[in-house]
């Protein structure tokens, strides 16, 4: 869970949801995965993603954006990145 002592910052991230959260062995989040499927870019998705991206960056959590046309190579790259980070 992300938090902030700054009330405005807290309110900006409090209502956001992630498609997937990858955690380490102790239950701490190490990555957030946003899947950009066919319905992803409705309403203010770009703004919501920007807020999530910034919150994750500030918390030291990887923010991974996965397009609907992802490949096995994309998953391998993500896996390799997370494996290095967890080590």
Question: Any overview of this molecule?
Answer:
The protein is of the alpha+beta class and 87 residues long. It has one domain (7-86). 44% of the residues lie in helices and 21% in strands. It is built from three helices and three strands; from the N terminus they run αββαβα. The protein has helices spanning 7-14, 45-59, 72-86; strands at residues 20-23, 29-36, 62-67. It has a three-stranded mixed sheet with strand order 1-2-3, sandwiched between helices. It starts with 6 loop residues before the first helix and ends with a helix.
Span of the ends, CA to CA: 22 Å
Radius of gyration: 14 Å
Write out the strand line-up for the largest beta sheet, numbering strands in chain order: 1-2-3
Number of helices: 3
Number of strands: 3
**Which shape, going by the Cα principal axes?**
flat
* Biggest beta sheet summary: 3 strands, mixed
The secondary structure category is alpha+beta
